Amino acid sequence: MDSDLFEPYERLVQIELLGRKVRVPENNRLLRCFQYLSLRSISYGDFCWNGDCTNCQFWYREPGEDAREPEKTALSCRFTVREGMTVTRLNPCVRIEGVNAPAPARNAHADAPRAAERDTAFAPPPDPA
Predict the structure, then answer these.
(1) What does the alpha-carbon distance between residue 77 and residue 59 come to, in Å, rounded to a whole number?
(2) Domain for residue 27, yes or no?
(3) DSSP H or E segment with residue 72
(4) Which of 23, 31, 79, 106 is the most exposed place for a label (fewest CB within 10 A)?
């Protein structure tokens, strides 16, 4: 897929994210993968995107690792996604819609009053005829 937001990828890989199976773009940093899943919350989240903060910290296990072994931790802005990995915990700053944050309401009628206000706010003055 061609995008300025993501590194080039040809397929989606499956990972487990807080107990849910999700598919994300291969060859991308995990924070970009989170953005793929939840564009709004990650794009507007409090992230430095370069490893200076720890707001994107996560805990994980490699594919095939024993669940009794201690989890590893990393910064998702510095970590390239690995097919089959399991993300077990996220820093509270990482809010992924439909996973650990509510999905946005998809009610077109909720935007109707704002659209009506917008349309009338810029309406030309009535003709003085």
Answers:
(1) 13
(2) yes
(3) strand 72-75
(4) 106
